[in-house]
Amino acid sequence: MNVATTPVLVVPSVFGGPHLLVKHEPGFAAVVQYPLLPESDDQPGYATVHRRLEVLRDPGRQRIARAIAREPLTPSELATRSGMSLPQVSRHLARLREAGLVTVERDGRRAYYQLHLERVRRLGDDLLTALFH
Fold first, then answer.
1. Is the peptide bond between 18 and the residue preceding it cis, with omega within 30 degrees of 0?
2. Across the chain, how many H-helices and E-strands are there?
3. pTM, 2 dp
4. pLDDT computed for residue 17 by the predictor
5. DSSP structure class, residue 10
6. How many CB atoms lie within 10 A of CB 46?
7. Segments making up each domain of the chain, as ranges
8. Which residue numbers delimit the HTH arsR-type domain (predicted)?
9. What are the percentages of helix, strand and coil residues in the chain, rounded to 5?
10. Per-residue pLDDT of the chain (133 residues; tens, 9 = 90+)
11. Beta bridge partners of 102
């Protein structure tokens, strides 16, 4: 496929999320299908978007975010899996929570943290919106 001469058809889809689909057959245009994100009342301003990106820059918080993107975990479980101390994990979770990037559900005395996938998924769009408003 010659990228310079092959036409590309870009198609939004409400059914394909969260995946990006790229297909190409010789002799036809390449098709890129991307997820169309739902409208949201939660349109953060530039300061909020900047804070969220800044919080996710830290490698320790990135490790925690990857773990809680898959399943809800307690701080103790995160400490064990990440090799960090419980106070370190708690500080990282506090920063992620302050930025609105995690949700917390309580089960008795246990708190389970999960990454707010929709907010993370929308960061690029939120940044563009914030820059132009």
1. yes
2. 6, 5
3. 0.67
4. 66
5. E
6. 13
7. 1-36, 46-126
8. 41-133
9. 45, 20, 35
10. 565 677 888 887 766 666 778 888 888 888 888 776 555 556 788 899 999 999 999 999 999 999 999 999 999 999 999 999 999 999 999 999 999 999 999 999 999 999 999 999 999 888 888 888 7
11. 115
Please, which residues bridge with residue 85 across strands?
Answer: none
Torsion sign, CA atoms 64, 67, 68, 72? negative
Q: Which CATH number fits domain 46-126: 3.40.50.2300, 3.40.640.10, 1.10.10.10, 3.30.450.40?
A: 1.10.10.10
At 109, the amino acid letter reads R
Measured in whole angstroms, the distance separating CA 58 from the mean position of its chain's CA atoms is 15
Nearest CA-CA partner of 42 in 125, 112, 104: 125
CB 127 within 8 A of CB 85: no
What pLDDT shows up at residue 130?
84
Interatomic CA distance for residues 86 and 65, integer angstroms: 15
Question: In the block, which residue shows the tokens 């310079």?
Answer: 4
